[in-house]
Specification:
Length: 338
């Protein structure tokens, strides 16, 4: 898999992508953005409901408070995810997990103040090596150019200035997260090029080139601090191998941790979300009831302990079409009036 854009697709594939539009979602303004007075816009692209709040909920809430437009794009409904609340972990709830997580997402967006969100229309891809990953309806099995065309359609319609995505490993290797990266980097390049998906232009859209593209990140310093605090509290950490791991499992775990490592020096943008933004993020996370257990993972320290570790959100600036400083404190730097 490569980060480089692929050559333009053949005519029939381009037509298929042109004809595609995202699945059901909600957006406050039905008319094309070009017909409205443009205001600075953040488009945050994610794999499943809850990913947006965990990795970018603070910057989304902050952008809303600063008067910017915020659009969330979720590529699947998370149908094949786990349910972490034992009382809710039933066959009936797994059958309707996509609907449950859509409702959780709406509640979380209410906490963050975000009023526009879309679903790209794909099925959750489960995990690599499982039967669910082979389902032809999944995001992982989707044609890459066609899936990119769906996101390009949204970019041309909503005209974001800033986009966020994941890195090439998807943060932790989940197939849907990797696909989010794959289509985001391509859509960032293609949306402003009229040679791509021309039928979208015939339907009234115009090319639009976003100014900045970021990858979300958990820096190693944050990971290490969380890991140490959990160890001191006698709590299991995601970053530690199972106590009974075999030598082979230990080697696999170590390889995974190395791929997940994000050195602090690679971070270009630290955004302070303390105050109202982190308060909103804390409430929004708890709205993802099926996915977030208050007695495990990042939540074990309670509100004060959690906020102590997550008062900043970190990003790696992948692309900028405007002049920016090497180190930033806001995703909109270089775009704001002097």
């Amino acid at each position: 898999m490569t980060d480089e854009p692929t050559p333009p697709p053949p005519t029939d594939l381009a037509a298929a992508a042109d004809a595609s539009s995202p699945g059901p979602g909600r957006h406050a303004e039905e008319s094309p953005a070009a017909a409205q007075a443009h205001r600075l816009t953040l488009m945050s692209v994610h794999a499943h409901p809850d990913d947006e709040t965990i990795s970018a909920g603070g910057v989304m809430a902050k952008a809303v408070a600063d008067g910017h437009r915020v659009i969330l794009v979720t590529c699947t409904r998370g149908e094949q995810g786990e349910i972490v609340v034992p009382a809710m972990d039933t066959p009936d709830n797994h059958r309707r997990l996509g609907e449950l997580r859509a409702a959780e997402l709406e509640a979380a967006m209410g906490e963050l103040g975000v009023t526009e969100w879309e679903n790209l229309g794909y099925r959750d891809s489960d995990m690599m090596g499982r039967d669910g990953n082979n389902d032809p309806r999944t995001f992982w099995q989707a044609d890459l150019d066609e899936a990119t065309g769906r996101l390009v359609w949204l970019i041309r319609r909503d005209q974001p200035d800033v986009m966020t995505t994941y890195n090439s490993f998807g943060g932790y290797g989940h197939p849907d997260h990797i696909r989010v990266h794959d289509i985001s980097i391509r859509a960032f390049e293609r949306a402003g090029d009229p040679a791509w998906y021309p039928k979208q232009l015939e339907a009234g859209l115009a090319p639009w080139a976003p100014s900045k593209l970021y990858e979300t990140a958990i820096p190693s310093s944050v990971r290490d601090a969380m890991r140490a605090a959990m160890k001191e509290a006698g709590k299991p950490s995601f970053w530690d191998p199972p106590a009974d791991a075999t030598p082979e499992q230990l080697a696999e775990h170590q390889a995974l941790m190395e791929k997940m490592l994000v050195p602090d020096e690679s971070i270009t943008t630290w955004v302070d979300i303390s105050g109202d933004a982190i308060d909103r993020k804390w409430r929004a996370i708890q709205r993802h009831v099926t996915q977030i257990a208050m007695d495990s993972g990042f939540m074990v320290f309670g509100e004060a302990g959690w906020k102590a570790h997550w008062a900043k959100e970190a990003f790696i600036r992948r692309e900028s079409r405007v002049p920016v400083p090497d180190e930033e404190t806001d995703l909109f730097e270089g775009l704001l009036p002097a």
